[in-house]
Predict the structure.
Amino acid sequence: MDSFHIADLFGSIAQIWNEWLGGFLATEWVNIVNKAVGALLVTAVPVVIVVFTILGERKIIGRFQDRLGPNRVGPFGIFQTIPDVVKLLTKEIITPAHVDKLLYNIAPLLSVSSVILIWAVMPFAKNIIGVDLDVGALYFVAVSSFGTLAILLAGWSSNNKYALVAAFRVVAQLVSYEVPMVLALLVPVMLAGTLKMNGIVEAQAGEVWYVVLAPVSMLIFFISSTAEVGRSPFDLLEADSEIVAGYNIEYSGMKFAMFFLGEWIHAFTICGLTATLFLGGWHGPFVDQVPLLGPIYFLIKMFVVYFIHIWIRTTMPRIRIDHLLDLNWKFLVPLSLVNLIVMMFVIKLVGDSVAKTSVLLISNVLMFVGTFMILGEVGRQARQREESMRQAEPVTAGVQG
Amino acid sequence: MIYAVFVLFVLMILGGGIGVVTSRNIIRAAAALILSLFGVAGLYVLLEAGFMAAVQILVYIGAIAILIIFTVMMTQRATDPTRLMFNTQWQWSLAVAVVFLLLLVYTLNLVWPFTTSAETVASTGDVTFELGRALMDPEGFVLPFEVASILLLGAMVGALAVARERHDDEEE
């Protein structure tokens, strides 16, 4: 046990732990204990991170809105989250009279667990990952569907009209936006040739980050996963000005907070996934020599993406429900299908030649240009229609502006 | 250890199944169906078919979310326990169930007696990769795969054609 290096901090800790545990336990029991500890850590990490992101997000949003944000508890208000949690924990939990008690109580748990389950496949570093599943990327999509279900059950079991409206919106929003998200997710999978999360990161370490090779996919993934979180501009599930609060209206105390815990964790979880799939995850300079840098790089990338997420959240107004569906079905889904087919052909045709990077980049740029040209044309036609309607004159056939 | 997990999943499947048919509340029945299908996904995991397990959860639980919404929208008083939840076609259902049971008995009879020793299939280790190969390989199952794709595409286009709003000024 002479191998404590600060460069490989987590590896050294794991080694010391294993040696200590192996001193008085059989090997199989060491495995069982390690799996239990691992499960605990995977659960604890996002919950610990969320304590900091809640404060960070409130501070950042405060600045965006030209105010200070929380600044009373501790220096610069950094302990604000602690009294908030204590307050939520000590609040009375009220169960309304005519709710479906079983489903009503399951829904908050399901909401949080669906998000925490994603962290099982989140790679922090080469050796720091819950399980490197063969089907990691697909697993992420699969467990996300529990979140949809949680909101749906919460909305229905609350026995409240507003909550039910929110539950209907869930299907319109979350289930629809899953389609472009999965289609965009397929592109890094195709590029890496594996569904393993660590495999995708290592493939990016071998060549270039996929943000260069597949920027269109990254944008689609980021937009549709923001919609999956259900935050502004896609916060129709809990539109306080339209349906009072939404699916969580009948919840109080910690049960109410569970939904928000789930949402906050989900917010930076998708940022972590974007960083993993498109920004090289834990990979960065000198990471092979100094393994400790892996988690640091990962967290830095995650928080950069998270900052953009907050930026969008605090800048954009809520989108209307028909616009929301139009954006998905008339824009994101066709674009992601075209993107998928183009990338498929390009990857197959170019193979592993040196020109791969430039050809992929050029094809993505062309897709961007094409998309904007089509969008411009559609917008121009819409303006023209509106103009002609305002003049109350029928458009004569064949006239092109 | 693995038997305990197996029993747990089987209890989930059977308990969920019983819940589906006995629950008077149709949403609870749907929730029980989720439990049951989740147990099936667990069995896939025990069989080391991770891909199948993920797809099972993705397809079925996502689909049931939509099913619940349609249940709420289309049934009158979905939660009223005084209302008869079952329709009156139990004779037909009985006949179908008996035929299905006979079919099951016949099929199981072909592989009887069961063996507990697992037959190992030659594999390079990456099951998902093998599965993808098999589905897309001309030597493998590419023809059934494509036929199924076209069938689904046809069904989707058909659904769109049926559901499409027709305007009077639209000439066809």
